[in-house]
Amino acid sequence: MSANKFFELVNTLPGLQKQETNYRKSISPMERLAVTLKVLGHGDSIYTTACSYRMGESTVRGIVFETSKLIWETLKDTWMPKPTEETWLRNAERFWTLWNYPNCIGAIDGKHVVFEKPRKSGSLFFNYKKEFSIVLLALVDADYRFITVDVGSYGRNSDGGIFRSSSLGKSLANGTLNIPPPKALPYSEVTVPMVIVGDEAFPLLTNSMRPFPGAYLGDDVPKKIYNYRHSRARRVSENAFGILAKKFRIYGKKFSFQPETMDYIILATTILHNFLRDDKCCWQPGEFEMDAVTEGLGEIPGIGGNNPRDAFEIRDIYMAYFMSEAGSVPWQWQATLSAQRDT
Question: What is the pTM of this model?
Fold first, then answer.
């Protein structure tokens, strides 16, 4: 974080200033923010940070929680506002320009945040990696910014199950996300809904696309081409998580907070991630990019149960479009054949 961004953040958070008394001066806003960023950004333990700033461990722990909560509640309306129809259209344009996937309004994925097992929690947080975690579910735009996040689900749950029960999944089911109506594909007269792209853990719906199962592709070139193009757009969410973990080193260690405290800490890192995307110290789109590998709307329907037939047809339309002259890109053939030889 640059110095300008640090002071901008201090001035944006008037709640950092605490009342002083005749007997004790309060910890300054800059020091409170510095302590919090030390823990989140460097991944230092509470004990190490307390020794560095000559504070008590309970004081540091309280500062990190209070400041994280303040950051989220103060900045969320500015740096993660509820998307409008214009926002979705702008996202779709950026996905087509940068990642060659039309009518895509976001990429979705889940990240397991590992922490020390809470007492008397049983196996609720025990995930498939045999660790204890809560899940950060995020919808990401084409420029690696978080559009919306959902935090706090048990690590034992799947990404698809978390999506169905999340506020995002319920909003999609209720049609309250201001998603634009179906739009024609570029250089084509074929109209398809605006869609979100995810991996195989997420449901296939008319507004949510996932790749064809890799185990059944065989030598089916059109399906492999679709999976490659799908992967180019979907990996944006994984890249965003990678940038987040690189920027906030606390993700490289086990969190030593209670689950209810972790929620605000994770939310604070996601909003700070958006806040710092235009900082000159941050990695910007276009740097260190590498080719992806092939991986195996009208009225929005309810989420869950069997896949609707319309969703299969929409994915087939995309597959045909990516094979056509209007929708293909020159490098997709070589990328697909290279991945096939590697396997």
Answer: 0.83
DSSP assignment of 63-132: HHHHHHHHHHHHHHHHHSPPPPHHHHHHHHHHHHHHH--TTEEEEEEEEEEEBPPPTT-TTTTB-TTSSB
Distance between CA 156 and CA 318 in Å, rounded? 33
In angstroms, rounded to a whole number, what is the distance separating the alpha carbons of residues 189 and 52?
63
pLDDT digits over 73-103, tens only? 999 999 999 888 999 999 999 999 999 999 9
- CA distances from residue 328 to 12, 19, 102, 225, 236 in whole angstroms, order as listed: 46, 62, 11, 9, 20
Chain position carrying tokens 């504070």: 55
Q: Please give the Cα distance from 23 to 341 (Å, whole number).
A: 73
Contact present, 180 and 102 (Cβ < 8 Å): no
The answer to whether 224 and 294 are in contact (CB under 8 A) is yes
**What is the DSSP code (8-state) at residue 147?**
E
Other CB atoms within a 10 A radius of the CB of residue 121 amount to 12
pLDDT tens profile 175-226: 677 889 999 999 989 999 999 999 888 888 888 899 998 766 777 888 999 9
From CA 90, how far away is CA 81, in angstroms rounded? Answer: 14
Look at the chain and count its residues. 343
Residue 111: strand pairing partners: 136
Q: 45 burial class (0-12, 13-18, 19+ CB within 10 angstroms)?
A: middle
Rounded Cα gap, residues 8 and 292, in angstroms: 37
